[in-house]
Amino acid sequence: MADRHGDVADRQIRQRHGLDLAVCLAVDIGQIDGAERVGHGGVLPVCCAQSSVCTGAGNRAGGWGPCTGFIDRRRSCRLGSLAFIEDVAMLRRLLTIGFLAAAPALGLATAATAAERPAVIARDGSAVTFPEATLAALDLAILQGADSLRLDVYQTLDGVLVIRTARDLAATTNAASVLARPVGVKGEPPVAGFPVDLVPYSSYAQLTARQIVAGRDLRFDDMFPAPILEDAFALIARRQIDSRRTIGLLIVLHDTQVHAARGRPMEPRLIASMQRYGLAGAPQIMIGASEPTSLQQLAGPGNPRVFVLGPSTARPADSAVTRNSATFGDYQAPAGLRAIRGFADAVLVDFPDVQGYYADGAAMPPSTIVADARAAGLGLYVGGFADADDPLKPRREAIDSYARVFALGVDGIVTDEPARAVAARRHGR
């Protein structure tokens, strides 16, 4: 039954976006640094087959090169130092006959490491390698050992839940070159850019993803479609079978007040989708939002709820509805954390809120928020490790920063370079 479920999951992904998932596994182990992020260290686990040919354009002979062509899922092709293995069952057989011993050096997860804590939550997948919020980035993060995936979820004009990292589709996809300018909604501010909530799913389905952070690899731009939420659910179902471990999710809803005002609330759609995939009430599936009213509506399924804090001087988008003037900074104080316990089980804060840095780069003493959250009965997760001004920290600095936060006793971290976070957790034991 489990294998049949996994086959259905793969078919659902292919039917929605015409995808075939392929596992691209580098065998040139001599080039791989296990502490580096997989992908730029020699391992490229995922490609999407959209053609029956494997062109290999752009690969460097004899060295690491990305799969810039497409994979014929009926055969394997070797490009430079990469061997592309498109059959997941074949990967399992390789691991069984002895490749498993090399998995830690490759940065790949094994069943034995699945339950380690604190948790490593990959924000929109391994986004330092592939365009964020693509199935390729999500799949790579799973193979790198991430315990959970953070999915930033928006809703299209006609009510389809999709995975993106910004409301403006032009920031993360080819929307500006393939879509007509969206028409605004009467009574709302003028349209700027290509807001996902003003684009119907029929238009969204035409989009391909692009790298959003300056300084990262752009060679995968326009290779992968922009997925919907249920694509990720199907992928998780398949990979849990393949890896024989539980894979969690942190599903973060965005712009909930926009859709509530239009009469298309996101929360019932999310609950219905989770119920279809058997995820309602699952403890490893967390639901996040930055609006208390949204989290209150999500209490029904019984999944852990996470209050996602924004900039300290800003207020939740539903503050006018709740008549609550508290800022996100107020919620970080002990009294604010106790108030959060009334509608959430955990809180997600940024790294500087836990431990800041002086101008010379030296670390400040940790704040009291970890202890304060514990006293309030809340779990605590930490994100905000990279941004547009810091596309990728130097390797040692990144691992050290993750290790420091782990040592503070947090429940987990959220990062777009999960391989390094997994390495930091492993080295800290």
UniProtKB/TrEMBL annotation:
EC numbers, comma separated: 3.1.4.46
Domain called GP-PDE: residue spans: 118-425
A biological process from GO: glycerol metabolic process
Enzyme kind, highest EC tier: hydrolase
Highest taxon in the source lineage: Bacteria
GO molecular function: glycerophosphodiester phosphodiesterase activity
Hydrolase among keywords: yes
The reaction(s) this protein catalyses: a sn-glycero-3-phosphodiester + H2O = an alcohol + sn-glycerol 3-phosphate + H(+)
UniProt entry keywords in alphabetical sequence: Glycerol metabolism, Hydrolase, Signal
Pfam family, one: GDPD
Protein name: glycerophosphodiester phosphodiesterase
